Amino acid sequence: MALDTLEIQNKLQEAFGQKVNHFRTEYGVFVLEAEANSIVEILQFMKEDKTLNFHFLTDLCGVHYPENENSEQFCVVYHLHNWFTNTRIRVKTFISGTQPELPSITSLFESANWMERETYDFYGIIFTGHPNLVRILNMDEMVSFPLRKEFPMEDSGRTDKDDRFFGRTINNC
Amino acid sequence: MSNIVLPAEHRYNKIIQERQNEDGSELAILNLGPTHPATHGIFQNILLMDGERIVEAEPTIGYIHRAFEKIAENRPFYQITPLTDRMNYCSSPINNMAWWMTLEKLLNIEVPKRAQYLRVIVMELARISDHIICNSILGVDTGAYTGFLYVFQYREKIYEIYEEICGARLTTNMGRIGGFERDWSPKAFEKLDAFLEEFPAVWQEFENLFTRNRIFIDRTVNVGAITAEKAMAYGFTGPNLRAAGVDYDVRVAQPYSSYEDFEFDVPVGKSGDTYDRFCVRNAEVWESLKIIRQALEKMPAGNEFTADVPAYHLPPKEDVYQDMEALIYHFKIVMGEVPVPVAEVYHPVEGGNGELGFYLITDGSRTPYRLHFRRPCFIYYQAYPEMIKGSMLSDAIVILSSLNVIAGELDA
Question: What are the residue boundaries of the NADH-quinone oxidoreductase subunit D domain, all occurrences included (chain B) (predicted)?
Fold first, then answer.
C-alpha cells in the first residue's frame, strides 16, 4: 500500500517549509524539488522519519539544462524508494551553472559514493564532503565534462557526417 | 580510471613503509587485472596484500566505457536498443524489453496480453541464461570445469530460441514499441518446448554436482558474506540482495508486463555469502522455468504480437513497398520524426543482476533529452573492496564471480 502523496507533502512542508516545493505526480511517481543547500537534511528526514522511511537510494544522476537561467542550469535527481510501502519518490535539486556545488549524501547512503563520482565525472558537479571525488569512468587526464550539452559527441571537423543532408538541424537532434 | 603503473606517492606505498609485521615481512602491492584470465571481464583491482590475505583493495573501472548516455542523447528512440543490448550482454533481451517498456510508459501504449506473455517468456529465458553463466563460471573458478561445459550447451539452446525470434544471438536488439517485430515462428515454440523438456534434468544434475560438494562448500560458505543492512546501504538489488535475506524483487513489488498473472516464489538466502548467492540463483532458474510454463499455458490464442501503433511500430517491409501509409510511417520512424510527449519517466525491471532502471527525460524532439541507466552492477560493485577485505586472493576471484559483475553493465 503506497504512501499517500498528500501525506508526504504535508510532512515535508511542515518540516522544511519553502525549501521543498513544486510537488507533482509524473507518470505515477511523486516528484518534488528541494533546495540544494539543505539536501542532506531533507533526504535524512525522508530516510529516518518513521512514516516516510525512504530507506533505499535507487538512483542518483545529473541533468544539464543550458537553456535555464544560470542559477538552475544543473539538476541532480535522486530516486528514493520505500520498500515497505512500495513508494517511489523523485527529488530534484537545481544548482548553479557557473559553480555547480552540492553537499554530498554519502553520509546517508553508502551507495551514493560511486553515483556521485559518476555525476562529477560527467557534469563536473562538485559534491562537497565526498570522501574521494575523482573521475570514475573517464580517464583522469580528461579536462572536460562530457555529458554537458555543449560537449560535442563527435569530432566537429568531420565532413562525412553532415547532419544538414538528413534534414536535421542543431535544434532537432 | 587511473594509471596502470602506481605512482610513488600512492597511499599504499605509505602504508607499506609504516607497517611492520612481527616476523619482518612486508606488505606487497598486487595488480589484479585489468585483463586477468580469472576475472571474467575487464576489472582492475589494486590489492594491498599481507602474504596471501588482502588488506585493502582499490577497484578501477571504466575500461570499456562507451559513453552510452551521451550516444543516446544523439540517437532516435529506435536506435537506442542496440546500446541497451551491450550493457548486460548476458541477458540482453531483458534490457531491450525494459527500454521498450519505458517508451510504452512514456507513450501510454497498452501492449496486448499475448505480447506481454511472449515478453515474459523471453525475459525469463534471459534470466536463465544469465544465471547459467554466473553459476557455472563460479564452478570454473572453484575448479569444477565440467558443470560449466555441460550447462553451456543449454545456454546455446536459449540463444537458438533468440535466433528464431529475432535473428540475433548475443546482442539481440529484440522487439519494438508495442511488442515484437514479428510473431514468433512455430520453430521458436518448438525449440522452447524442447528446452523446457530437456533443461530441468540438466539443471538438476548441475545442482547435484555442486550443492553438497565438499570442495565447493569449503570454497564458498562464509566467503564474501554481507549483511542485509550493509547490502541495502550499498544499493544491492537482485539475487545478491536476496542472498542476504531481503525479498525485494521488482517483478513482485512493481509487476510489469503482466508478471502479476504468474505464481512464483522469490527465493531468499540467509547469510549473503557466496554459497547463498549460488543457491539463490539456482532456485531462481527453477522459478523462471515455472513462469515460462505458466506463460505458455495461459497464452491467449491468436497471433497478436504487437499493439496497434502504426506511428511507432515499423511496418513489414512488403507493405512499405505496396502501401502509401506504411511507406510514410516507415520513413517517419526511420528518420525519428515520431510524436513524443515532454515528460520524465523512470521504469524499473528486474534484470539478471538486480533492478535495472531507465530514467528518460524527453523534450519532444527526436532524441531523448537525457537518458540515465540505473545499472545494478555499477552500484553494487562499490561494495567489493569491503567484501574482500581480509580474505584470501583466491576468494576474491570467487566473490567477484558470484556477484556476477558484468563489465559492460558496470561501465556502460
Answer: 141-411
Q: Is position B2 within any domain?
A: no
Q: How many helices (H) does chain B have, and how many strands (E)?
A: 18, 6
The CATH number for A103's domain is 3.30.460.80
Write the CA distances from B282 to A153, B134, B222, B231, B293, integer angstroms. 42, 10, 18, 20, 17
Please answer yes or no on whether B67 and A146 come within 8 Å at the CB atom: yes
Residue B179 Cα distances to A171, B57, B84, B98, B313, angstroms: 31, 45, 17, 12, 9
Assembly ipTM: 0.90
Q: Do A63 and B361 touch (CB under 8 A)?
A: yes
- CATH code at position B364: 1.10.645.10
pLDDT for A173: 47
Give the global pTM.
0.92
What does the radius of gyration of chain B's CA atoms come to, in whole angstroms?
A: 23
- Grid cell, residue A133, equals 571525488
* Tens-digit pLDDT profile for residues B144-154: 899 999 999 99
Q: What is the largest CA-CA distance in chain A?
A: 59
Provide, as residue numbers in chain B, all residues whose Cβ is less than 8 Å from the Cβ of A147: 69-70, 73
